[in-house]
Task: structure prediction
Amino acid sequence: MPDQRKVLLLILKLLSDAYLDAIGNSEANEEYPTIWAAVCVLREIAVESDAQREHLVGWLTGASGAGVGEGCGIRRAAVAALADRKDSISTVLEKSLNQFGDQLYIKHTPILQQEGEFSSKFCLEI
Result:
């Protein structure tokens, strides 16, 4: 299992660095094919496997933040990959809302991480 998690994290990093970093927060139509290609990769690798899907949910909602320092594109792709799984996307939203309301978390989490998580939670439309 730890090896599967490492592979998923490496794929997320590769997709982000090689393809999605250039994508900003705009809603330009030319960005859609790149994001959807990343969504398809993530669906094949992570969403069809229960363990990998849990790793992806954990990456999106973990205390370290979903791809802190990465662009919004990888988070958009990860959320879109989970969109068809009602239980997984509900878990992501519930954990995210709980985390945003936690005063201890707000006071002690670096601002870069909070901004990254904020953009991932509220730039989700594809």
Observations:
- The chain has a mean pLDDT of 80.
- Residues 2-122 form one domain.
- The CA atoms of residues 47 and 53 lie 5 Å apart.
